Amino acid sequence: MSLTRRNFLKTAGLTAGALGLGLQGLDFTSWAQEQQQAEVVKKPSLCNVCASHCGMWVYVKNDRIWKVTGHEENDRSQGRLCPRAHGGIDWVYDPYRLKRPLKRREDGDYAPVDWDQALDEIADKLREILEEEGPEKVFYAHNPRRTGVFYGNRLMHALNVSTICTHNAACNTARGRGFSATMGGVPSTDIANSRYLIFLGRNYGGGIRTSQLKALQAALRGETRIVCVDPRQNETAALADKWIPIQPGTDLALVLAMSQVIIKEGLYDEEFIEEYSVGFTDYAENLEDYTPEWAEELTDVPAETITTMARDLAAAAPASMVYPTWKGAFGCNYENSTETARAVACINALLGNINQQGGFFFYHGPETGSLDPEKHPAPSTPDTPRADGAGEKDEFPLATGHGLPHVLAERIREGRVKAGIVRHHNPVRNFPDYDHMKEGFGSLDLLVVCETQMSETAMVADYVLPECSFAEREEVIEARGGRRGTLAMRTRVIPKMYPHTRSYDEIVVELAERLGVGEYFNFSLDEANQAILEPYDISLEEFKEVGSMRVDLPQPEGVPEFNTPSGKFEFYYEEFERHGAPPVVGWIPPDTGLEFGKNEFRLVHGKEAFHSHTATANTPQLLQITKDYQTNRLWINADRAEELGLDDGDEVRISSEIYSDTTRVKLTQRIHPETVYYPSGYGNKTPHYRVAHKIDSLSPNDFVKYQKESIVGHAMVNEVIVTLEKA
Ligand SMILES: Nc1nc2c(c(=O)[nH]1)N[C@H]1C(S)=C(S)[C@@H](COP(=O)(O)OP(=O)(O)OC[C@H]3O[C@@H](n4cnc5c(=O)[nH]c(N)nc54)[C@H](O)[C@@H]3O)O[C@H]1N2
Ligand SMILES: Nc1nc2c(c(=O)[nH]1)N[C@H]1C(S)=C(S)[C@@H](COP(=O)(O)OP(=O)(O)OC[C@H]3O[C@@H](n4cnc5c(=O)[nH]c(N)nc54)[C@H](O)[C@@H]3O)O[C@H]1N2
Ligand code: SF4
Ligand SMILES: [Mo]
């Protein structure tokens, strides 16, 4: 109906009349007073915006969240929260949240269905696929959060499904493999007490974990000299002693050359090498050609600087380190990322900084209890082959247990995988090559996505199951090691807002019963949590009041037995040799090469302090920061921009082999001339993120084609060359 003046008056009259009627029986003033005077209750929870799960206090009034603050007894928050936690409140009150289960119709649109119908149909279809095609045609993919692991993995084990994937092949698989292949795992770091610290890309000020920012603060106040190696001057580099711009994809050359200097000048920890390592001679021999002059050619870092950095690092040892990054320079960015991680592990071994103040630490987690196996038998580990190529006899025998969702998409397209469950994860948007991921996940016989928003992955699902928000549910208790051990739990802080949403544990239990494996879920969430708390002198009720609790752990001393085949640090790794990868680390160039034409650039990305991947892409409070500071721009070196006739704020067309889009540029001297940079977390394709659509933005993932790194198969998210022209 269009509104003419005449029917406006009619409608207005009606409303006033209706209101008048409605209010007659109500004492509005006393109702308002009651609301205002209601008590503010402080309840413990965990932030859900990123995987750090900082402990927080939620202030609730009239069952509505008013604000959040950091929990003091939680190792990750230590009394503080990052900006995203505050923005995360918007998630709960987002009017476009998923509120009912949805089923895809024949015409591609979605229709609401009730839970029983959705779960019955999902179970029927899944059972049919499991029986007719086998468990090796089914997968589970998630951003691995505690409840998703506890319940989701248990369901897959019960169904004999091996293919459990996380987002790691687009995050830090290479880092994980490089460190496990040398020191048996990724260590914790003691940067606050470090005397010399090199960050390769890792940007504490953008890719935030609250406790690490506190450590950085301490390092900045103390005697730590901080060197940031990054093609752009990131937020941490702006505070550091030195910013070293580097040609992207060449950190491996830098680290190899620094290692050579340390060995050649006899600056390494001989005792550590003699007693706690294997394969040093082969490693040292292999380094001989990697001189600082050789590295200068590749990295654009002067040979003199490389030599000085190596000497300074060694002089400050063992209270020094090359930081083991998170994603930064070598999480899973380039063809040489696994080798970069290995080289970084090796240079730290030369410093002998393991379990040394200001260096690396290997901590044990707090003790936890578990469900009585007599009463609650656990399913056995699956014995079926994986569907994603990450297997002993498959394409990537050296891949990690986190799996390869992008390879899964390829195999789905080939008809080799039929059904999957995705929870708390948006692989279609967060992995490179949107069309590849969308067509892959979209062509399954059955895709079930458990979400809170209509993400790109939900958009191609057969069924979308709405999870209630973090504030409306309880979860499995987490136990975390570190300098301070913590037990922590997400508790329910407000009542459920929408009756047709459910928590993931509820969904899994219902599915398990329908799939005939309910016997593995014959316990309540409370019983699981009680079992976890068993070694401690606290009841579950008491624990729910505090939410986070510190656990004293012995501080590690001396060199530990490493979790490697020899129990020692392995410069020479036989497992790599067995599968055709180099047993000793050496130079590998990035896949896209190092020669660029006049108008060619390498496109890199990184986190902004106020966004979390695409999860916060539709959050009004956080998007306002994007708008206010216009951060949705492509960084380009000002001199290169001038060559291309570009002014600050100009619109450019940016194109790669597979994709082209326009955006505005930010001119700066804070970036390497052959690199352009765009922040992460933008460029959503889902029309349901209505706030996100109000700003122009792009996703670097659109420009990167589907590709697989050779050793562990990760997605090589930065292996892309783009060209620019004024739009
Ligand atoms: N271009 C580009 N791509 C990247 C990166 C980058 O920097 N740039 N970073 C990479 C990295 S480091 C990572 S770790 C991955 C992350 O990739 P993802 O694991 O996919 O990360 P999120 O965007 O956090 O996706 C989480 C999804 O979970 C949903 N969600 C949020 N809360 C809940 C909940 O309570 N329940 C359920 N069921 N769902 C929920 C959100 O709506 C969102 O769609 O992305 C990688 N991809
Ligand atoms: N605010 C916020 N914080 C987060 C997250 C988030 O989404 N938002 N996500 C969390 C997650 S899952 C992760 S993995 C971490 C990631 O945190 P970080 O490890 O810090 O990773 P990024 O922010 O992806 O990238 C950091 C830097 O790497 C640089 N870089 C790119 N290529 C190269 C290269 O070849 N060499 C060098 N030296 N540098 C390079 C980029 O310019 C960028 O400044 O952050 C975590 N914290
Ligand atoms: S680092 Fe920030 S977003 Fe991540 S859990 Fe902590 S407060 Fe939340
Ligand atoms: Mo990540």
Can you offer a commentary on this structure?
This protein folds into four domains: 1-37, no CATH class; 102-171 and 367-551, Rossmann fold (3-Layer(aba) Sandwich); 186-361 and 558-578, Dimethylsulfoxide Reductase, domain 2 (3-Layer(aba) Sandwich); 600-726, Beta Barrel (Barwin-like endoglucanases). It is 31% helix and 17% strand. The protein contains 23 helices and 27 strands. A seven-stranded mixed beta sheet has the order 5-4-17-16-15-6-7, covered by helices on one side. It has a six-stranded mixed barrel with strand order 22-26-23-25-24-27. A four-stranded parallel beta sheet has the order 11-10-9-13. It is globular, with a radius of gyration of 27 Å.
Large-scale geometry: globular
Number of helices: 23
Indicate the structural class. alpha/beta
| Strand order in space, largest sheet | 5-4-17-16-15-6-7
Q: Largest sheet, described in full?
A: 7 strands, mixed
Key terms:
single chain, 727 residues, alpha/beta, Rossmann fold, Dimethylsulfoxide Reductase, domain 2, six-stranded mixed beta barrel, 27 strands, 17% strand, globular, disordered N terminus, binds ligand MGD, binds iron/sulfur cluster, binds molybdenum atom
